[in-house]
Amino acid sequence: MNRPLLHSMHRCMAVWALVLLAGLAHAAPPDAAYAEAVQALPEASFREKAALVAALVTQGHPNARPLLAAMLDNRLYADDRGVFIADADTTADAEPVWRDALTLNPADVSLGSRDRIRTNNSLRAALKVGLAQFDLVDPDAKVRIAAVRELSGDLDDDVLALLRAQQATDDAAAVRREIDIALAVYQLKDDDPALRLAAIEVLDGEQRNLVYNRVKPLTDPAHEPDAAVRAAASRVVAGIDGWREIYGALETLFFGLSLGSVLVLAAIGLAISFGVMGVINMAHGELIMLGAYTTYVMQLLLPNHIGLALVLAVPAAFLVSGLVGVAIERGIIRFLYGRPLETLLATFGLSLILQQVVRSIFSPLNRSVTSPDWMQGLWQINDLFSVTYNRLAIILFMLVVFALLLLVMNRTSLGLKVRAVSQNRAMAKAMGVRTARVDALTFGLGSGIAGIAGVALSQLTNVGPNLGQAYIVDSFMVVVFGGVGNLWGTLISGLSLGVLNKLLEPAAGAVMAKILVLIGLILFIQRRPKGLFPQKGRAAEGH
Amino acid sequence: MTPRSLLMRGGRGGAIFLAVMALLAVVVPVLNLGLAPDAALHLPDYWVTLLGKYLSYALLAIAIDLIWGYCGILSLGHTAFFALGGYAMGMYLMRQIGTRGMYGNAELPDFMVFLNWEALPWYWWGFDQFWFAMLMVLLAPGVLAFAFGWLAFRSRVGGVYLSIITQALTYALMLAFFRNEMGFGGNNGLTDFKDILGYSLQSQHTRVGLFLATVVALTLGYLACRYITGSRFGRIIEAIRDAESRTRFIGYRVEYYKLALFTFSAMLAGIAGALYVPQVGIINPGEFSPINSIEAVVWVAVGGRGTLYGAALGAGIVNYAKTWFTTAFPEIWLYALGALFVAVTLALPRGVVGLLARRKGGTA
Amino acid sequence: MNLRETVHEMTRRDKVFDFVNRPTERPSRVDISHNTILYLEDITVSFDGFRALDALTLYIDAGELRCIIGPNGAGKTTMMDVITGKTRPEAGQAWFGQTFNLLRMDEPEIAQAGIGRKFQKPTVFTEHTVFENLELSLAGPRGVWHTLFARLDGAQRDRIAEVMEIIGLQDHALQRAGSLSHGQKQWLEIGMLLMQEPQLLLVDEPVAGMTPQETERTAELLTSLAGKRSVVVVEHDMAFVRSISRTVTVLHEGRVLAEGSIDAVQNDSEVRRVYLGE
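Predict the joint structure of the above. Result:
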């Protein structure tokens, strides 16, 4: 690009900005001037308001920014006592929370004959620029970048000047680059093909939608006469298309992994009770459901600390489901060892009872569990790719649970005993392992993890009596696909089934994808009846 | 094997079962059609339908008992075959509606008109013919069971693995049938039937006729199973249940035996479904739900597996209890059913039949 | 080839279902023209890196009675698993006579070709009667359709009665096999072997848990079978081995350590080292 030219322009603007700053230094004490300008607002004409806005911007009083933002959003009101801001997040019907525009302190007033401070188009444009101007000098470079981005779509001469001034003085390279992009996008409309070409060069490598949308027309001969510009534009567009594909795939992968994490969480407890102990627990889904309801109850107990309630729900759900699990093992399953089909039926009966218990206590209706703030929202990595925090949290949570479980199985004496009993019950007994106790604890561990899975699920779906049923078939599939008795197999199979599901979804639709995965699994089990990672050796041969 | 020995082969329980069937075939029509509606002993119409429903469930239970009780194959997806038979029958009944549907389309069932379908999909062709529909009642479950079983038994998937993938099978079918695009009425399934073979389904006589057909089908199904279990083939499948690999080393192709039995059982389940649909008046994808399959397995467990008549008895007991509970104490029903599962597996491994036999043995 | 020949060729009963039958099923009787009934060559099997069989080579002659001995883990049972199709070796050749390639056949095919097996732990059908156990083992067609309509004829009944006589269970015909004593189960399983009329019998520890009298009768029975059939016996009881066998093979760590007469084997220095730690 034509750096020297732009540079000299920037320098020119910098001088202009310095003049403004000098004017600021000579002004009256800021607070007083601020108050004066604010109090003048209600009575001012649109022209005068524009001047006042300009003055507020130049004063740079910290309270001016929320004021201007409120004015832009039509949330600024006045009555005979002063000027007040209505908080942004109040709903239309309710009486808003008021703040005094001068101090920003909550104002305990109910405004009777309040008047909105009105704006018109040109004033709103001025407000936008003014806000950006505020943000452009914010000490935080991120705020400055956001301000430039906010502006970069539609530049006019004033903003252009502002940006150029900022670019000359800003000490953060990222901000300067951001301004470069904004200016280049503007320059795409220049009459001079050389400048357009230069602008495209600047934008090369950028992936954001704005760049794509503005450069794309330049690939079309109807809009762009110059062949060199068209070629460069095509290159940029192709580059972005490539990135879009990559990010699209990344997004599918991410969705798949988060779905897979849910599957792993739901299945991993089953992998212990089914895989290690050979017990088919059809009530596993209901243990998940109990975990979800535990989360709900914790939130009822701590209504003002949603986040804390969620964190506490993890151990609580582990305990609740784990204890129920131990009770199931002691009460039913231990009488049925070696009779897997009977175990299956008895635990299924139990699942019906548990569902009905929940229906009786909490009603058959779904309950919703609130997510804490840090689980909500979006992590915008760039224009093309963003991840939601709750999905990300689920993936991380799953990994932590899995790591802890591995630790328990491989590094604790319980884990050692569990493995001993699962490999050779009689021998373990002869060595003095209390197998009955180990059975109960193992089953309790698997059940407790089901409870933890329930906590995670409560963040994704509504909590209801049928929550568990939705996951039981999937959980079994994950365990069987991974290879019974293999925790790593469960991890890999859960994640790959999740990704596979999401890969198929765009082409086949959600339900069809699920059906295809099920059919695929049925066929897979025919090929490899022992799963992806079968247990090997003579021990696995006999049974 | 002479016919007489076939009738007696079930022992005392089998004889009682056949006697009850004969009794039902006589008493139900007489009490329903022969007596005036206000007579004290008159059997209300809805009881005829209800009994017919129980008996078709009993046939499903016998089909499950044949593979579970005698061959150790626990299918948690047998209602898939039941529902497929039901859908085949339902498709015939839909085609019989003709122009009497809401949209009055002679070719297309209402839901297709509603979905703006232009023509009948190819897999609906032929279902206006009763014989073709009946063929499909056997073939649809039979072919599915054959294909599924061929894959599963050949690669020696057994025990709980088989149970779990049969569950996945019926779950996948349920999801598929819920889709409108499948062309089986989606969520609502097939309903609003008018008549069968020209007889109105609302008529008392048709209902009794369907009931009698169910009695006959159940009796024949029972006798067929009795023949199978009494033959050398039956002794081989029991041998497979008790010592599968030994059976192989004697030279029997275990997978063929299991496949033949599984396919036959699926067809029986299909017939049960076909008898169920016209009496109940609706078939929807809920019939595929894995829960239903497990419930059906519990009928067999409650009655006593490996006896055939025990399965039929269990289907009757549990379903009557369900009818009674869901009207008297709807919220208790699931507790009762769940407790039944647990109690039967823990305390009554041989079911009610085993209990009766033991009491009898104790007093003798 | 003219049309008539073509038609004739296509309608030949043994050829029609060529595409269905696997080639290995074609020969109906074992071909022992070279006087060797079983060839095992370089058979290798390993479980998780542990070599259960290590390039095992073994030949059994037609009509021979061979004893296989060896310490625990020597690979005796694994060898039987390979012969009967339960375990597939990673390398090697296994032929039954000249024509049956055992590595291409599964358990029922091998059983139908004429190899019978008695397990270490007696495995009978516990819910069936003694009579039914023998009936199921009866040589003959094994097809689904056939067994659905099969009836026992007089000759078959006689055969079952004869075998019950041989195994001393004629008074227990209608008794449930599960209620027999351990020794009786061993005998019943031997009886089931006899019913199959195999050309090669693999017998794993037949006298474990038997009284001396029973052991003696078993020895008699096995010796009487040899000649017409080939018998391979795996046994720990050296007195029993001495009483029946002409040739003994010693397995150790998955390969043949020594082979020869019982005296020669017992005096072999390698064998003494392995068994007695000398």
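Residues 99 and 211 of chain B are 28 Å apart (CA to CA).
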